[in-house]
Specification:
The protein is mainly alpha-helical. The protein folds into 2 domains: 1-198, Up-down Bundle (Growth Hormone, Chain: A), CATH 1.20.1250.20; 206-410, Growth Hormone, Chain: A. The protein is 82% helix and 0% strand. It has helices at residues 11-37, 39-46, 53-78, 80-98, 103-131, 137-144, 147-166, 168-171, 173-186, 190-193, 207-216, 218-247, 253-281, 284-302, 311-325, 329-339, 345-374, 377-409. Helix 3 crosses helix 5, helix 12 runs antiparallel to helix 16 and helix 14 runs antiparallel to helix 15 (311-325).
Length: 410
């Protein structure tokens, strides 16, 4: 459970830690998005369809899920700071494999990349839980989660022109260089922020134990299912918005890309705004429920889209969807840290993230099945609305679990 830090952390120190954690997560996002952003160049060079990049992303997510379950042992043994550095070094190794240009090495590199990505959030949550206070917890966690959209924006701006100018294999050196520089910049602060590491902690923990822990704590279990639902919502937004705008609203690919950019851009502000609100009202669960409700309403409005809608209104809807459907992550991670047993934050976060990753897979699968029935992408977003309402239900169950626990303790 969340407590006041044992040692008073200055605002400068908090800002420094959060900045580095944002950089780590942004670098992870760049590492994960880089190949998909230049898929046409890779396909042309290897004589393969660019659509096959989907398998690379799938491998990355599968091993990200598995790695998140194992992350708790690495965090406790090495410390969260060193675990973050290890993640960066795995990004380096993965992109060194990508640079070979071999399809087999791209597959292996995707495994390594996923293993690195699964370490990032459990390590960050463990560290943040040491420095935040009850009055800033949600905001600090949410600031840290801006790394994903910022990394996505950076990749979109840097990857394609770099690949065109120097070749796709040489372009991955950007990720390698950034990761190495960040590892070196973090090293002087390692002893300060890994002061609670335990040399006796098992490096490879039984992942089932953390899953059992989450499952046994009713509020944490339902919060994990909230992450599953909102993970599905987020993935449908990033995966199908462009296709919906092109196929159902007759947008050009460039114009549809603007809609996706609005979603990503909004998520930067949304993550900070919801974290700030959660601290102001003193309840991350209430804000999480509000986010799910608004996401359901926004997805419901999407069902009404037609080519007659003004583009400005369509882009405003995209911004609104990004503001909620892509912005729940920080408050979610903060609540996991608050509800986790003392000393179990990284393990609880890893187990919850495993369930969240399941939503990343489930969302597109259900969306495709729904589209096969409806034949229209706009109508299919009604499924997204229902999944978001499922997230609201999970929040209500988590809140009920907290009330029941308090009643039992009296």
């Amino acid at each position: 459970m969340f407590d006041e830090p044992a040692v008073k952390i200055s605002r400068t120190q908090t800002l420094l830690v959060v900045t580095f954690l944002i950089l780590v997560q942004a670098t992870g996002a760049v590492a994960g998005f880089w190949l998909p952003a230049i898929a046409p160049e890779i396909g042309a060079d290897l004589g393969l369809s660019p659509a096959l990049i989907g398998y690379q992303v799938l491998i990355q997510y599968v091993f990200g899920m598995l790695s998140s379950l194992m992350a708790g042992g690495f965090v406790l043994r090495l410390g969260p700071w060193r675990a973050s550095q290890l993640a960066l070094l795995l990004f380096v190794f993965a992109h060194a494999l990508f640079q070979t240009g071999s399809v087999a090495m791209i597959g292996l590199g995707s495994v390594v990349l996923g293993c690195g990505y699964g370490l990032v959030t459990p390590a960050a949550s463990h560290l943040l839980n040491k420095i935040v206070t009850p009055s800033n917890r949600n905001l600090v966690f949410s600031f840290r989660f801006t790394g994903v959209p910022l990394g996505g924006i950076a990749t979109g701006l840097a990857a394609p022109p770099t690949a065109l100018a120097f070749g796709w294999q040489q372009s991955v050196l950007v990720v390698i260089a950034v990761s190495v520089l960040l590892v070196l910049a973090m090293q002087p602060m390692r002893d300060r922020w890994d002061d609670d590491r335990s040399a006796s902690a098992p490096l490879l923990k039984n992942p089932v134990a953390d899953m059992k822990m989450v499952w046994s704590l009713v509020p944490l279990k339902w919060l994990a299912f909230y992450g599953l639902c909102m993970g599905a919502v987020q993935t449908t937004l990033t995966t199908y918005t462009v296709t919906m705008l092109v196929e159902d609203l007759s947008y050009t690919l460039v114009a549809a890309g603007v809609g996706l950019s609005m979603i990503q851009f909004a998520s930067v502000f949304g993550r900070v705004a919801w974290g700030w609100l959660a601290d102001r009202v003193g309840s991350g669960l209430k804000v999480a429920g509000l986010v799910a409700l608004i996401a359901a309403l926004g997805a419901g409005v999407t069902c009404l889209l037609t080519p007659a809608w003004p583009s400005g209104l369509v882009y405003a809807l995209c911004f609104g969807l990004g503001f909620v459907g892509m912005s729940w992550n920080g408050v979610y991670a903060s609540e996991i840290a608050r509800l986790a047993p003392e000393g179990k934050v990284s393990g609880a976060t890893g187990a919850c993230m495993f369930i969240t990753f399941a939503g990343v897979f489930l969302g597109p699968v259900l969306f495709v099945a729904m589209h096969a029935w409806s034949g229209v992408y706009t109508t299919t977003f009604g499924l997204t609305a229902m999944i978001a309402l499922g997230g609201l239900f999970c929040v209500l169950r988590a809140a009920a679990g907290i009330r029941a626990t308090r009643s039992t303790c009296r």
